[in-house]
Amino acid sequence: MKKENTINVFEQKQVRTHWDGEQEKWYLSVIDVIEVLTGTDRPRKYWSDLKAKLRKEGSELSEKIGQLKMPAPDGKLRLTDVADTEQVFRLIQSIPSPKAEPFKLWLAELASERLDEMQDPEITIDRALEQYLKLGYSENWINQRVKSIEIRKELTDEWKKRGMKEGGQFATLTDIITKAWSDKTTKEYKILKGLKKENLRDNIYPVRYKIVG
DNA sequence: CTCCATTGTCAAAGGTAAAG
DNA sequence: CTTTACCTTTGACAATGGAG
């Protein structure tokens, strides 16, 4: 039974998380997520309303959310509504928030943070390039990407300034692109926007930067 | 959305009694 | 008398749902 409670930080706000070693899943305090996303000082009520709304709309999401003991402000363990990363992703879509996208980044980073290679930015970049190759990007394009490492560093530094852990950011971007960016695959997104594949990143990147910065 | 009352849960503290 | 085990109380908070 490997289980542990940890505190992670998104934009200087605490999000209580719980690592379930058996299921290899992260559970996040829904209350904390909502607080971060909406900025409300009454996340409990917001969550309550949202839950009711989801129920009304026939979503099974609210029922699937369980409760775990999380450390409360008084230092005691209390039952708190929690959701795994997948559920949180869906939850985010129900919350209108300018922070939704950066939060997805953060979440994806969290999900892969357990991997040791996250520590070294160079390795993460290498991995990302591998991913690009797998995705069929031309080597030429990848070479251009390598050249734009300064941009990456700039972005990383920006994140760092805002209290995010170094490393993982670029892998996070890869995660988003390869897995679950806006709930669409890269391909679908490309088709959706009518973009050439080579241009995809260049369209995403400035947006990310704008949101974060 | 805010404010408020209610309900249930929790951890710690206090009490009591049986066992060493 | 001291330790251990169990029970009750207490204060705080999470969650809920109604009212404005």
TrEMBL record:
Q: Where is the Bro-N domain?
A: 14-113
User: What InterPro entries does this protein's entry cite?
Assistant: BRO_N_domain
Q: What name appears for this protein in its UniProt entry?
A: BRO family, N-terminal domain
| Originating species | Niabella drilacis (strain DSM 25811 / CCM 8410 / CCUG 62505 / LMG 26954 / E90)
